[in-house]
Write a structure and sequence with these properties.
The chain is α+β, with helices and mostly antiparallel strands.
Length: 198
């Protein structure tokens, strides 16, 4: 009888083989579904930040969205507060809670940046935020949909260096791809709601 090698039916299925023992495929699937099923923007931002923080092993995180050609901080999550704060579109340059240099680098290149010990190695050791706050692990990833940058996710873990392993980066990338689609849908839904009120 002929044996056939079945192609993975989804990105999630092909991704399952990349996970190590500390990252459970069922958890990632559940997280991805939670993000993709949310259509109201505020709830989506809260779900996204909570889900990413839980699965990435971050201590604090920010979601930045593009608004009128500029990057603005829309959501913040810190483990110590254990809550998502939805912000009123604060320009990335107007906050001292994250590195605008790292964010702008990811914005320009469209590539994820992972720093295992940001304060002592890598291209951002002289960044003003890094010099002042001496963060340990930093992960900054773009949210891209159909080749268009939708937003940027910025994560820090200041308890340990090398917190964002290759496996955790893959998890974040997967969740970012789901989040980009969900954000586009939520914005479309928001516009439709506005039209229906007119």
């Amino acid at each position: 009888s002929r044996t056939s090698t079945r192609e993975p039916t989804s990105t999630l299925e092909s991704f399952a083989g990349l996970l190590d023992d500390e990252l459970d495929f069922a958890t990632i699937l559940k997280a991805s579904q939670a993000i993709s099923s949310e259509i109201v923007l505020e709830r989506l931002l809260a779900t996204l930040m909570t889900t990413v923080m839980e699965n990435a092993g971050a201590e604090k995180g920010f979601l930045l969205l593009e608004s009128e050609g500029k990057l603005v901080v829309q959501a913040e999550f810190t483990v110590e507060q254990n809550a998502v704060s939805l912000l009123q579109s604060i320009a990335v340059e107007d906050t001292d809670r994250l590195s605008s240099g790292i964010v702008h680098y990811v914005y320009r290149t469209g590539e994820s940046e992972v720093l295992g010990d940001a304060a002592s190695q890598g291209k951002f050791v002289d960044d003003p935020y890094v010099l002042q706050n001496r963060p340990k692990s930093v992960l900054c990833a773009p949210l891209v949909h159909s080749g268009k940058l939708v937003g940027i996710l910025y994560l820090e873990n200041n308890l340990t260096t090398e917190a964002f392993t290759a496996e955790r980066l893959e998890v974040v990338k997967l969740l970012c791809s789901q989040a980009a689609i969900a954000l586009m849908n939520a914005r479309l839904y928001e516009r439709l709601e506005e039209y229906s009120r007119v």
